[in-house]
Amino acid sequence: MKDCIRKTEEFVKSCLKGDSSGHDWHHIDRVRKMALHIADQENEGDRFIIEMAALLHDIPDEKLNEDIEKGKRILSEWIDSCSLQKEQEQHILEIIYSISFNGGHEAELNSVEAMIVRDADRLDAIGAIGIARTFAYGGKKGSPMYDPAINVRKNMTKEEYRQGKSSSIHHFYEKLLVLQEKMMTNTAKEIANERHHFMEQFLEQFYKEWNGYE
């Protein structure tokens, strides 16, 4: 299993090399470490399944591929090459395809391993790292830092979430600030509280500077 993990690390590094959208290898490694930390604190879950799912969770992401099918094919081919038990393959794939936010259109989770990996991925989307990743992704996508004329979007479809008009600051209200209450493990809930508070402080300071301290 250690050899499988090592090879998967190298595979993911090669796939995400040069990414500047906040979905680079360092994001993957943080999610992996956080997921294993949550598993240890909760004393639950298959560590191998958790680590593999965390390492591979962004490989099929449509944001990082020419199209959805190409990402799915790359992931499927890698999983097949790992010579895992069929149950392990299915569990890892099930986790990967169930953790995305999708504008609030979330899949139901069927295992503690999925809960742990989802929590770990979402923790990396909030707090100081989450703020940095938000502006990195916004810049990569060509979104404005902030535009007061844009309304905060609610009840979006998946397509509207991906393609609609927004800004990096609006993304806080459309995703980041709602993640705290969606954490599923006690460990993640505790960590999320601190990171959520930090984001609120950041926004308060941002608006002060934006408005010239009026």
UniProtKB/TrEMBL annotation:
Transmembrane segments: none annotated. Residues 24-126 form the HD domain. It comes from the Bacteria. It holds the Pfam family HD. InterPro entries: HD/PDEase_dom (IPR003607), HD_domain (IPR006674). Gene3D superfamilies: 1.20.58.1910, HD-domain/PDEase-like. PANTHER family: HD_PDEASE DOMAIN-CONTAINING PROTEIN (PTHR33594:SF1), SUPERFAMILY HYDROLASE, PUTATIVE (AFU_ORTHOLOGUE AFUA_1G03035)-RELATED (PTHR33594). This is HD domain-containing protein.
